Give the backbone structure.
Amino acid sequence: MSNERAYNFSAGPSMLPLSVIEDAAANLANYKGCGESVMEMSHRSAEFKAILEDAEKNLRDIMNIPDNYKVMFIQGGGTLQFAMVPLNLLRKSGKADYIITGTWAKKAAKEAEKFGDIKIVASSEESTFTYIPKVKREDFRPDADYVHITFNNTIYGTHYPYIPDTGDIPLVADMSSCILSEEVDVSKFGLIYAGVQKNIAPSGIAIAIMREDLIGFAKDNVPTYLDYKIHADNGSTYNTPNCFSIYIAGEVFKYIKDMGGVAEMNRRDVAKAKKLYDFIDSSELYNCPVNKEDRSLMNVVFVTGDPDLDKKFVAEAKAANLHNLNGHRSIGGMRASIYNAMPEEGVDALIAFMKKFQEENK
């Protein structure tokens, strides 16, 4: 085995900042001299309470989260949120409107259909999700309880270039694969949720950022753990949380703060993505099928047009220490996930490999 770390382009679980991993390793057996690992620590201990409070405070700082929003760390990842959202937010008409921009958006809508009257107001499925549909306020049912969007589509490499205007209807956004890569106005959303395993921490939790006036409407038959109010009232410790994932999340928030905040992350992410897209667009071998204005900064998808050549590309890239460049199993091709933790040198190394592969396989 090589001691050299690879450039890991996995869509999730994905790269974490190396300094965070090394610091966690140094503190793994004995966290800051307290005699225990965070993995062994009571979630009721003073040490863990401090970790949790710091994590929330730093997230609020870097995302500019208003005081009337609760921050919750909930087990089950983004997928559990697909059910929690309708169970908590279908509170008046029982109707919700969904925009379908990829696999995860479809799964979220399908889950919601178990609990209410769900309408697909727009979809880009007819073009294999290569663009983000344009919607306006009139497209939504005026009595919908909420509108749901998937802000960045990991599999198809698309991202919303705008925030849909939903008027007074709460807007819910799954930001699992783009949170902390750009500044967002949290007050435009009723609820933002994100599985942490792409830009924040090891998998196992989702972060929910929810406007307080939307909390507390789960029906009596909703399982206790699936009621946001339980998590909000108990400060994310109703039961034993995933302490280690929350700890790493907190360390990543500190790292982002030290680097200059979300604005600086975005500046770097834009530079990395531009480099890669510019090369793909000018190359003779590769093609990115995504509509230019809807391209993701986080997940860059591309193909050669020959599935066998795509497979060869992925295999040779891995041998060159560029890991996990295969597209999602549902669509094939290639995908380079270049989250916050991917250094620019990783993108440079990928482009150099792509050039070499193009020369050898013209």
